Amino acid sequence: DIQVCEGTACYVKGAQRVSEKLQEILKIPAGSTTEDQKFSITPCRCVGLCALAPVIVINGDVYGKVDVNKLESIVGKYN
Fold first, then answer.
1. I need a labelling partner for 66 at 20 to 30 A (CA). Which of 18, 36, 42, 77 fits?
2. Mean pLDDT, the chain, integer
């Protein structure tokens, strides 16, 4: 499960772009799961790490100051 924080700080710092890039990489809309059941994209409320915005959480692993250009590499760790 990939949670995309959509709290105020993350939203302002580009959470929408992060979500859109994840949807492009995984070829699923937010709120959905990939056919192989490996990944889902779940928008969530503030995870409390506003200083690290934008933040995603993958299976409990926290990634802060997420750069959309590094998302493929991050997701690739879980394949």
1. 36
2. 97
The two most distant CA atoms of the chain are separated, in Å, by 34
- Dihedral sign from CA coordinates of 66, 67, 68, 73: negative
- This prediction's pTM: 0.93
Kindly tell me if the per-residue pLDDT of 40 is higher than 90: yes
Give 62's strand partners. Answer: 57
For residues 51 and 65, what is the distance between their CA atoms, to the nearest angstrom?
8
CA distances from 33 to 27, 42, 71, 77 (A): 10, 9, 17, 18
